[in-house]
Amino acid sequence: MKKIILIFLLLAASLVTVISAQAAFGIKLYIDGNEIECEVSPMIINDRTMVPVRVLFENFDADVEWDAAASQVHITARETDIVFTIGSKIAFVNGNNVTLDAAPMILRDRTLVPIRFVSENLGCKVSWDDVTKSVFITSPEEEAVSDIKLIEAIEGKKNTIVRIKLTEGVAPVITTASAPFRIILDFEKTSLSIKDGKNHLSDKYITEIRWASHDGYSRVVIETSGEQPYEISGEGTSDVEITVGNGTADTDSSFDEVTEPEENEEQEEQKNQAAQEELVPLPEFENMLIVIDAGHGGKDVGALAKDENGETLVDSNGNPLLVEKDVNLAISLKIRDRLQEKGIRVLMTRDDDSFTGTNKENLMARCEIANENNATLFVSVHNNSAVSPKATGTEICYTEESTGANGITSKELAQNILPYLTEATGLTDRGIVNRPNLVVLKNTAMPAVLLECGFLTCETDRKVLMDDNKLNDIAEGVATGIIKSMKQIAKNM
Ligand SMILES: [Zn+2]
User: Which of 66, 112, 119, 351 is deepest in the core (most CB within 10 A)?
Assistant: First the structure.
């Protein structure tokens, strides 16, 4: 099971027409030669072979999360994120929409997904044995595209350079770890023609270099002596250099005996100062920081525009008509711009279509950004959805548990923003709603609110959310409410 993370049942298309629903039970499943025990067998429903997704994914080390409000299943495994919406033929693979030939469904408490979708999106090889009624799945071979043929360390006075030579350029995934500080480079689809090993250095900057080849990738670990500055060059080429120590790539030890001040750090500091000076906040707001949280992102698409039958609406190209994560981001960026124009410091939890960790981790990370930076206010931007296409309007969620840290409560913040926001959307005023259990309201240390600007499932609301001028008005309205709150805070401080 080492190679397979995502496993799906794949049946030959011809089989679908041959086997009746009854006969389809009891199908055996083999993955890379091993028989897999399934709590519930795959089944054929309406000529489509359906797989109980949860059972399967949980057998294979994938992360499965169920979003009841959105009727969505989020599956995360290795580098693949899949979002299925029950009853919808549109699924998302790594944030990109894909049309299914059959919609996922719920049957007797099981979420079933059509396997054809999977077979078209993953490179597994599948064969069917009609005699034993068995499906054989062979995971794709991860072919190495490059090979590490040399790792060497060049010690200098001001730094030590680690040079990694590859047969083909592969951009490494670079991470760091602490205690002891390590720089870790993972080269995907790269083999290691030198044997796994390590090299202990009695060096000022690096204590040890280790390298090993794993299934499908090779890893080089550079353990440094304490936390060291480092620079990487040549990423994506066949010659990668990691300079550990004082930034400049000086390996010539024959001169330069004098220890010079750390140029790069100095330059860095000057740059930071310049960046801070560029933004001159109004004196009353200068100690305040507003966090704008664009809800969802990446594989977490949020709500979708749907018709009265619950079918996802698509544009002329077959793409979803409107996706919540995109509207949220558009509004959030506009709010940021409005605030920054007035010299107000703003921090975004995301400013692109990104997502990390599980859903829960992702939400907690948003709170941590605000908490760690001592934010004054936290405003999360969302849009709503409902089963009924008639549900319409603008509302703001707050938490009654907020007791007025920073001189304002979550409720007051919501009350300050709501009139401006509803005026901007022109939609029904649904008021403020106490939602103390929303993760971003519960786990933020400062007054926080969550805006639901409108419903993606309502035609009237969609017209607003798809109109860039209206989004400008919304951002202006929210910014006005935030500034009103900041003035209240300034007065109370
Ligand atoms: Zn949302």
Answer: 112
